[in-house]
């Protein structure tokens, strides 16, 4: 028997508590963060892919699996596929009127997600953080954030290895008297600012915190403000960068070259 995947576990929690909105959000977060394998009608040609499209209950669906073995079991043998993240998949399908079938017939997490669900998840993941300019008056120890948010932040930042050295969560008071929470990233890699801000936004969204907000700032380790944040903040260490996979091994796995529908 195959080991359970994170998607299996999140799906089981969601099914056990159908009225729990937080459990549903956590399931969709796991799906967005996971590597999925999309069944194709033919081998990929460069960055162009042709998903196998099925008509089920008056819906057009593509099929994805969270393990290659599950895809092969469904296809009853080797079959062409593309490996890509869940977020890349829904971004690719957005606006196409196509839903997806997850792990159909091969896992306890089997389910259908209609085109409306795909559109919702794509919009949620595409929400860009607002950039603000403000002067900080004081940094204080963080407080008042639910444990679910702290856990979600820890998980998101653990997946952001190599984008920054570390981060400090602090309370912040601005010169205009506004108070809030601030996540200060230290030694952010150039170009990674938006990705890190989106990760923070997703941590809040998928925690079910509707009115929550955490502002983001990027500092160098030599900045005096970084030293102030270190004295009062809750520290998150980002993992060292893993070896980057060779682009092109599977379409969709090179973040600089997302796959294109054919």
What features would you describe in this structure?
By secondary structure, the protein is an alpha+beta fold. It has two domains: 6-126, Trna Endonuclease, Chain: A, domain 1 (3-Layer(aba) Sandwich), CATH 3.40.1350; 136-237, Alpha-Beta Plaits, CATH 3.30.70. The chain has helices at 6-16, 21-33, 68-75, 86-93, 115-126, 147-158, 193-205, 224-232, and strands at residues 35-39, 48-49, 53-56, 59-65, 81-85, 99-102, 111-113, 136-140, 166-174, 179-186, 214-219, 234-237, 260-261. Strands 1, 3, 4, 5, 6 and 7 form a six-stranded mixed beta sheet that branches. The two termini are 36 Å apart.
Task: Give the biggest beta sheet.
Answer: 6 strands, mixed
Quaternary structure: single chain
Q: Give the count of structural domains.
A: 2
How many helices? The count is 8
The fold-level CATH name of the largest domain is Trna Endonuclease, Chain: A, domain 1
Whole-Å distance between the termini?
36 Å
Query: For this structure, what is the CATH class of the largest domain?
Result: Alpha Beta
Specify the helix fraction band.
Answer: 25-40%
Shape: elongated
Mean pLDDT metric = 86
Proper CATH architecture of the largest domain = 3-Layer(aba) Sandwich
Low-confidence stretches: 244-256
Overall radius of gyration = 20 Å
Name given to the CATH homologous superfamily of the largest domain? Uncharacterised protein PF11572, DUF3234
Q: What is the H/E order?
A: HHEEEEHEHEEHEHEEHEHEE
| Counted beta strands | 13
Structural class: alpha+beta
Strand content: 15-25%
Name some characteristics of this structure.
262 residues; alpha+beta; Trna Endonuclease, Chain: A, domain 1; Alpha-Beta Plaits; 2 domains; 6-stranded mixed beta sheet; 5-stranded mixed beta sheet; 8 helices; SseB protein N-terminal domain-containing protein
